[in-house]
């Protein structure tokens, strides 16, 4: 199993500018799912109006930067790519720092950036949840279908598998999600690159944005029971 201190990754994050920590370099402390700790630096840069870039450094090595775009007031979702692995992370944001919760698919890792708030609280999932989804396409009409969210057996709370089935198509898309208080982030792979869905809850339904690395901006998506 790879550890965060060994990663060389691209992270694509969705952020809110009304509460995100200011641009700059922050001390970083983290803990891998196996209990190994690490430290380094975390940098936030404003790339352009409405977009940020975030980066991690470990042992003098600068990791690759990420596109960033609005998501919610106090949660960020991240898709982390390390070779064949695609990992998901959720940050809670405060004025002077961030607190991250991430997963290797079975257990949790944690990160503290600057004067970090409390990390996002993972929430248990029971059984399978089936939703109808509608997402705006980068071009053409909206894409619709069915998505199933399933808890991973013997995994830590909030870790789930996601399966998308598209209307009129036989292909499926499989991903991994992290369900926390206030939202859900799910990562997936496409031929165009890795992607991310970030959703806030509204009762039984979810709404938010989706994104594939290389897109100019995130686009709206809804999951409805």
Structure overview:
The chain has 225 residues and is an all-beta fold. It folds into two domains: 4-114, Quinohemoprotein amine dehydrogenase alpha subunit, domain 2 (Lipocalin, Beta Barrel); 128-224, Lipocalin, CATH 2.40.128.120. The protein has strands at 10-14, 24-31, 37-48, 51-58, 61-62, 68-69, 75-82, 85-94, 97-103, 108-114, 128-135, 143-151, 159-166, 172-180, 183-190, 193-202, 205-212, 219-224. The strands form two sheets. It has a ten-stranded mixed sheet with strand order 5-4-3-2-10-9-8-7-1-6, with no helix packed on it. An eight-stranded antiparallel β-barrel has the order 11-12-13-14-15-16-17-18. Strand 9 (97-103) and strand 10 form a beta hairpin. The radius of gyration is 16 Å and the shape is globular. The mean pLDDT is 83.
* First-last Cα distance: 35 Å
Helix-residue proportion: under 10%
Regions with little confidence, pLDDT below 50 for 5+ residues: none
Provide the residue-averaged pLDDT: 83
Strand content: over 45%
Structurally, how many domains make up the residues? 2
What order do the SSEs take from the amino end to the carboxyl end, as H and E?
A: EEEEEEEEEEEEEEEEEE
Compute the number of strand runs: 18
Choose one word for the global shape.
Answer: globular
CATH architecture call of the largest domain: Beta Barrel
For this structure, the CATH topology of the largest domain is: Lipocalin
Query: What is the CATH H-level superfamily of the largest domain?
Result: Quinohemoprotein amine dehydrogenase alpha subunit, domain 2
Give the strand order, joined by hyphens, for the main sheet. Answer: 5-4-3-2-10-9-8-7-1-6
| SS class | mainly beta
Helices, by number, come to: 0
Sheet with most strands: 10 strands, mixed
Kindly provide the name of the CATH class of the largest domain.
Mainly Beta
User: What gyration radius follows from the Cα positions, in whole Å?
Assistant: 16 Å
């Amino acid at each position: 199993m790879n550890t965060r201190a060994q990663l060389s990754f691209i992270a694509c994050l969705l952020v809110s500018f009304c509460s995100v920590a200011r641009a700059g370099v922050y001390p970083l402390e983290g803990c891998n799912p196996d209990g190994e700790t690490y430290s380094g630096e975390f940098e936030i840069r404003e790339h352009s109006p409405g977009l940020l870039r975030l980066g991690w450094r470990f042992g003098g090595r600068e990791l690759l930067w990420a596109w960033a775009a609005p998501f919610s007031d106090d949660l960020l979702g991240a898709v982390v790519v390390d070779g064949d692995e695609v990992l998901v992370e959720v940050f809670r944001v405060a004025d002077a720092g961030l607190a991250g919760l991430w997963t290797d698919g079975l257990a949790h890792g944690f990160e503290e950036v600057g004067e970090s708030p409390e990390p996002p609280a993972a929430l248990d999932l029971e059984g399978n949840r089936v939703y109808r989804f509608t997402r705006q396409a980068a071009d053409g009409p909206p894409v619709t279908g069915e998505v199933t969210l399933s808890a991973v057996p013997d995994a830590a709370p909030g870790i789930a598998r996601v399966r998308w089935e598209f209307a009129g198509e036989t292909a499926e898309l499989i991903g991994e999600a992290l369900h926390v208080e206030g939202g859900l982030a799910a990562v997936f792979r496409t031929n165009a690159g890795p992607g991310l869905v970030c959703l806030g809850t509204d009762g039984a339904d979810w709404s938010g944005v989706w994104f594939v690395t290389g897109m100019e901006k995130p686009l709206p998506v809804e999951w409805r029971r």
